[in-house]
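Q: Please design a sequence for this.
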């Protein structure tokens, strides 16, 4: 199994400090990979990790697994939980790994001389055995892994807004090909008084950027 200290060094370098959630992410990432048959990050894009929160925990997961958003092997489904699902893209095998519900309390047993909870976790999370730290169980994805990974390079244009849609994320509504924002509603709203995009006219864009400089 990968050297824990080396992985923590990677995580702390990228995050500019080391904290308990990074350690938790590294340990959880290693266990998740091992649970579906990988003792180290696979060379090809065979491992997909779906994390349930962002932040420090995500950096630890990425350090352990080599999965990143940029490589489309790390996805965030933000449930606000330090948990993750690990998927073998070729076989579809998947497990979910989450911290034991009493992991913080157990930390004191592995750092008995450290009364401060933050530093107790920093110490304990590096030495606690996996069964004391985590719960692991098999799962199946409600969306097929092929649909999640999709085919990179596929591009279409939305019939409503005209913007390009990549990676098979379009929605068919009758004869229309729509982006999710037009089909289901976006996660943002435009100001009612906005007549056009601020940057639709390059002269406006240059003037705005210049005024901010």
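A: Design:
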């Amino acid at each position: 199994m990968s050297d824990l200290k080396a992985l923590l060094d990677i995580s702390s370098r990228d995050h500019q400090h080391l904290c308990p959630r990074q350690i938790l992410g590294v340990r959880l990432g290693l266990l998740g990979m091992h649970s579906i048959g990988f003792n180290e990050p696979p060379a090809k894009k065979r491992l997909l990790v779906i994390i349930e929160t962002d932040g420090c925990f995500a950096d630890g997961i990425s350090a352990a697994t080599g999965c990143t958003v940029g490589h489309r092997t790390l996805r965030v489904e933000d449930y606000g939980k330090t948990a993750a699902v690990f998927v073998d893209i070729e076989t579809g095998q998947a497990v979910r790994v989450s911290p034991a519900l009493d992991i913080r309390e157990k930390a004191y047993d592995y750092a008995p001389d450290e009364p401060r909870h933050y530093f107790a976790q920093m110490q304990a999370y590096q030495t606690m055995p996996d069964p004391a730290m985590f719960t692991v169980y098999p799962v199946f994805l409600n969306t097929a892994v092929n649909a999640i990974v999709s085919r990179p390079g596929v591009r279409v244009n939305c019939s409503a807004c005209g913007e390009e849609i990549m990676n098979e994320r379009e929605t068919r509504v009758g004869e229309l090909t729509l982006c999710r924002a037009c089909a289901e509603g976006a996660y943002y709203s435009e100001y009612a008084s906005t007549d056009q995009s601020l940057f639709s006219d390059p002269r406006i864009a240059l003037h705005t950027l210049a005024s901010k400089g």
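Q: Thanks. Anything notable?
A: Confidence is low (pLDDT under 50) at residues 202-210. The CA atoms of residues 16 and 73 lie 23 Å apart.
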